[in-house]
Structures are given as structure tokens and as C-alpha cells.
Specification:
The protein starts with about 25 loop residues before the first strand and ends in a 10-residue tail after the last strand. The chain is α+β, with helices and mostly antiparallel strands and about 180 residues long. The protein has two domains: about 70 residues, Phage tail protein beta-alpha-beta fold (3-Layer(bab) Sandwich); about 80 residues, 3-Layer(bab) Sandwich (Phage tail protein beta-alpha-beta fold), CATH 3.55.50.30. Strand 6 and strand 7 form a beta hairpin. The chain has five helices and eleven strands; from the N terminus they run βαβαβαββββαββαββ. The strands form four sheets. It has a three-stranded mixed β-sheet, with helices on one face. Strands 6-7-9 form a three-stranded antiparallel β-sheet.
Length: about 180
């Protein structure tokens, strides 16, 4: 019986770069990465534009190598499954500020969770794709809670351990008596 280990995101930890990928345009670096790892990369070519990658060293895990390839490019990545990686523009962080332009609430909450003492939990699955735009202080979840609370149909509950975001129930029709 054989058993293959995977990480929490399903990526085989044994997938490593077999050769250095030297500094080059991001699109070329990603192509070399894909050839070496066998991973499928999904991204819109215009986001890489004229970005330059600093490269990555042989022997790194796929996840570490990809992080190094994309360092200082303004791009981020996420594993969609064990074989597929999505490359996307990283949320902007300037002066401890994070900015979003029509990003899904699920991604915005994940970014806030990097800084917040209490994690945001999206209780209602339909809200995960709610598009959020704005600039927020990365360490001020109170302002983000106020913003979410101001949205029609959104309820925010702050508990001792987490911040729960859910959809409000529509009001029951009332009959006049």
C-alpha cells in the first residue's frame, strides 16, 4: 500500500524545483515553473505585464518557489486544488492600508484575518462573492465591521472569539388589523 502526503491545500510537498529559475519576465518565469512542477497556472496575461521576477532557487517546494518568483511583483497566488494555481493581483498594502476593487468578500475577509485579533467568519455562503471596494486600515477591523454593517442585507455579530458575517432574513409580510 502506498500513501502520498499532501499539505492542507492539497499540494504534494514532494513537488520541488529541480533547477534554478533565473531572473526574467514573470510570464517566462511562470512558464518555467509550470514545466518543472507540472502544475497548471491560471492567470490573465495582462496582469503580469512587464513585471520582472527575481527568480527562484532549485530545491524549494512548489509553494515556496512560486512565492519567491512573485515576490515584489504585486501578484499573489492560491492553490485551487492539488494541481491548479490561480495567479491574481495582490491586494495593495500601503502604510498599513489595504485596498480592494470589487474583490469578493471571502478574499477581503481572508486579508483582514491576517491582521485581526478575531477572525472574520462568513456564515452565509451567498455573501462570499459579495463584491467589496474600498481602502481600510489593515489593523482597524472596527471600521471594516462598521462598513459591513452599513450594507443592506448584511448582519455582523462580534463574539468573544470571532466576527460572524451573515445575511439578514427578509422581513415577514405583516397584515394590517
Amino acid at each position: 500500500m502506498s500513501c502520498a502526503a499532501t499539505t492542507a491545500n492539497g499540494v504534494d510537498p514532494e513537488v520541488k524545483l529541480s533547477a534554478d529559475i533565473g531572473p526574467r519576465p514573470v510570464t517566462q518565469a511562470l512558464a518555467a515553473f509550470g514545466r518543472q512542477t507540472g502544475l497548471q497556472l491560471s492567470y490573465i496575461s495582462t496582469i503580469a505585464g512587464s513585471q520582472q521576477s527575481k527568480g527562484a532557487r532549485a530545491g524549494q517546494t512548489a509553494s515556496d518557489a512560486l512565492a519567491q518568483l512573485l515576490e515584489d511583483t504585486g501578484l499573489a497566488f492560491e492553490f485551487l486544488n492539488a494541481r491548479t494555481v490561480r495567479i491574481f493581483p495582490a491586494p495593495t498594502r500601503l502604510y498599513r492600508q489595504i485596498e480592494f476593487d470589487r474583490e469578493p468578500l471571502e478574499r477581503v475577509a481572508a486579508e483582514f484575518n491576517r491582521y485581526a485579533a478575531k477572525p472574520f467568519e462568513i456564515v452565509t455562503p451567498a455573501l462570499r462573492n459579495l463584491r467589496i471596494s474600498g481602502a481600510f486600515a489593515a489593523d482597524d477591523s472596527t471600521a471594516f465591521i462598521a462598513f459591513l454593517s452599513s450594507l443592506e442585507g448584511v448582519r455582523v455579530e462580534v463574539t468573544a472569539t470571532r466576527i460572524r458575517v451573515s445575511q439578514t432574513q427578509p422581513a415577514e409580510p405583516r397584515t394590517a388589523r
